[in-house]
Amino acid sequence: MDGHLVVLSGGLDSTVCMALASRESATPPLALTFDYGQRHRTELDRAAGVAGHYRSDHLVVQIDTGAWGGSALTDPSIDVPRGGSGDGIPTTYVPARNSIFLAVALGVAEARALDAVWIGVNAIDYSGYPDCRPEFIEAFRQVAATGQKRGVDGDPITIRTPLIHASKSEIVIMGHELNAPLHLTWSCYQGGDTPCRVCDACLIRAQGFAQAGLDDPALT
């Protein structure tokens, strides 16, 4: 068995993950995108564009996380923070989002006999989400080893997190060197057709490009 699956949001980090996985895979990785009721639905189109760039099959899974609410990304009555998220876990945290994403990704990978799941979580320049930390990923590696047939058979699916200890500027430089289609990516948490440039995701992205000494091709 061989093959890779990338959890592809259409954002900067997941697109760089796609570039890395493509470099290692003999065939285009499977792109797995989640339509989870996010207000920034533009990222779904961006994900499709990135998947097309890499000639990948693109699987879109719908999960209505807005049905239980609790996040500014899925509940229009909760405002997206402007000017940075401040201390603590911000309102843009979506309860159990990466738990759901990884559970589905592991299931798809097992069903399609793929060996690795890639996810662009980052614990350096990020918003402080608990499901982006190394401890969380290690816990899910145990899930793959103990909760799937492949794991019980001694051949667990690998969870790859190549960006988890990288700064945003390092991720930008990596994407630039890999010729990743960064011009297609979307990071803004607000809905709409153009980035707001004041939400946490926009500010972290802008800082990353500035520190890397590169212009953001998505804004030119």
Which helices and strands appear, and what pairs or packs with what?
Elements: E1 4-7, H1 12-24, E2 30-35, H2 42-53, E3 58-62, H3 97-111, E4 116-118, H4 134-147, H5 149-152, E5 158-160, H6 168-177, H7 200-212
Parallel strand pairs: 1-2, 1-4, 2-3, 4-5
Helix pairs in contact: 1-6, 6-7
Question: If you had to describe this structure to a student in words, what would you say it looks like?
Answer:
It is a single chain. The protein has a five-stranded parallel beta sheet with strand order 3-2-1-4-5, with helices on both faces. It has one domain (4-219): HUPs (Rossmann fold, 3-Layer(aba) Sandwich). The protein starts with a strand and ends in an 8-residue tail after the last helix. The longest helix has 15 residues, at 97-111. The chain is built from seven helices and five strands. The model has no long low-confidence stretch (mean pLDDT 94). The chain has 220 residues and is of the alpha/beta class. β1 (4-7), α1 and β2 form a beta-alpha-beta unit.
